[in-house]
Amino acid sequence: MHPASARPALAFDASEWFHDPAWARHVPARHWRRLPARWPQALAAAAAACARHGVRATFFVDGLAATRWPAALRQLVDAGHEVASAGWQPVDVANVAAAGRDGLAADLVRARAALEAATGLQVLGFRAPWPAGGESWWRGMLAAAGHRYELTATGHVVALDRPDEAGGGDGVRRAQVATAWELDSAQPRLRGLPAPLQRVHYGRLVGAAARLDALLRGGGTPIAERLGLSPAAAAAAAPVPSLHPAAAVQPATPSTLRLAVVVPLKDEAEGVPSLLAELDALTADLAGCAALEFVFVDDGSTDATASLLAEAAAVRPRARLVRHDRNRGVAAAIRTGLLATDAPFAASIDADLSYDPRELAPMLRLLDAADVVTASPYHPRGGVRNVPGWRLVLSRTLSWCYRRLLRRDLRTWTACFRVYRREAVVDLPQQYPGFLGTAELLVRLLRRGGRVVEHPCVLEARLFGVSKLRVLRTVRDHLGLLWQVARGRIS
User: Fold this and answer.
1) 325-348: pLDDT as tens digits
2) Which residues in the chain land under pLDDT 70?
3) pLDDT per residue over 223-235, tens digit each?
4) Which residues contact residue 377 at a Cβ distance below 8 angstroms, ignoring those fewer than 6 apart?
5) What structural domains and CATH numbers belong to the chain?
6) Helix (H, G, I), strand (E, B) or coil at 346
7) What is the DSSP letter of 174?
8) How many alpha carbons lie under 13 Å from residue 228 in its C-beta half-sphere?
9) Run of H or E including 431
10) CA 419 to CA 452: how far, in whole Å?
11) Are 10 and 80 in contact (CB under 8 A)?
């Protein structure tokens, strides 16, 4: 056994698996609320490894995790570990600086309050979830929020009462840092991310337990203890301050529009839990402007999609499931959903959440001047993320052809993410039930004098499941539709 004074300072990054900084540009924060949490499993694995080696450490935990799993943090403290702050959730310091520093100051206080409420002890440490670089303007905020030291992203310990020193005092200059989520080999595999990033992230899971065992054989002790600090009991628990108080969910009023959200699905069992989490959050987000109901259309799935949707609809009073006995195509599924509701307004969204459903709020505001509002990644203010370049070339080329042929200033013709005045589209003929039908609907509506408005959105590659789009077949079919439009056969 190493004497306590000789043991190295040891810390764990106890963030979620999807908070990997390498994914920051490709898995933005909007996805976090729908990705499955694996924090308890990773934390348990790290704590068990420490117990096997008789080692104690500092665990840097975000405030949101503290509010969800306070008992797990109390177990860490009971085992002699230190719990320190990683903020409320990971944040890019560049974005903080651009948005203003008051938000960061409130975030630090909020996170510290949540951690102290969970553990009953003062929180002394903070780990920056951003590269240290040459800046340190946030350290005054850390001290003002009650922190005594910072562990930088590079592993350096900085005592906040003497931040200009090379080390943290008492001989502590660095801490050895392990990452808890690397121990969770059962974490989900995301799709749609660049292959090099996937190899880096999931490669870190291989041999992680053996690497940690090797590290822990050298002993370890919490950072605060190596600094000669001892956390006192926290003050009487107070309500955790809200950084962005959520508006109370309001019941539907006569002025609240009734919106049916149609979701076509085909073999999407892997992504159904994420979809439901997003739709539940959407219901709360739009409570002030729309009363939502959901129409799930199972388009002949052969996996567990239908049973998962049936369970979901059974516990959601404003949700229903409609089934196709065989696969008919996405446009046919949307039409089935429109026929299954009498709501005056409807939206269709992609089950793979390739567009952010929260964009429905600004899209609804455009309905005053439109019969259909369509998401548009090719709008000058739109964008794409993680979508293969060859697929974008094909899609943009087809959209250009429709634009030129119909002489309409629309840049996106094939998106499924749309908002409709139901009466304007529900009786339109449908010749093409698959992906082609999304373009056909716009063509027929415009030929009848309907109004279509684009809303700029970001299109992303799916994170779960497999796309049902057959690219070459779809391109061939679009060329056929364009030929029929040119001959005046689509009206």
Assistant:
1) 999 999 999 999 999 999 999 999
2) 1-6, 92-100, 129-135, 163-171, 236-255, 390, 465-472, 491
3) 999 999 998 888 7
4) 383, 384, 412, 415, 456, 457, 458, 459
5) 4-226 (3.20.20.370), 257-486 (3.90.550.10)
6) strand
7) B
8) 6
9) none
10) 10
11) no
Cα separation, 250 vs 118, whole angstroms: 31
Helix axes 39-53, 70-78, angle to 10 degrees: 10
- CA–CA dist 192, 469 (Å, integer): 14
The answer to whether the beta carbons of residues 226 and 167 sit under 8 Å apart is: no
Which residues lie below 8 Å from residue 380, measured CB to CB, with a gap of 6+?
A: 456
CA distance 111 to 101: 15
Quick one: tokens of 270?
A: 């892997």
The residue among 183, 232, 244 whose CA lies nearest residue 208 is 183
* Closest C-alpha among 361, 347, 342 to residue 287: 361
Token readout for 388 is 């293969």
- Going by the DSSP 8-state scheme, the letter that residue 271 receives in this structure is G
Q: What is the CA radius of gyration of the chain?
A: 26
3-state secondary structure of 361: helix
What is the distance between the alpha carbons of residues 27 and 34, in angstroms, rounded to a whole number? 11
For position 96, what pLDDT does the model report?
A: 59
Model pLDDT for residues 387-412, shown as the tens digit of each residue: 777 677 777 888 888 888 888 889 99
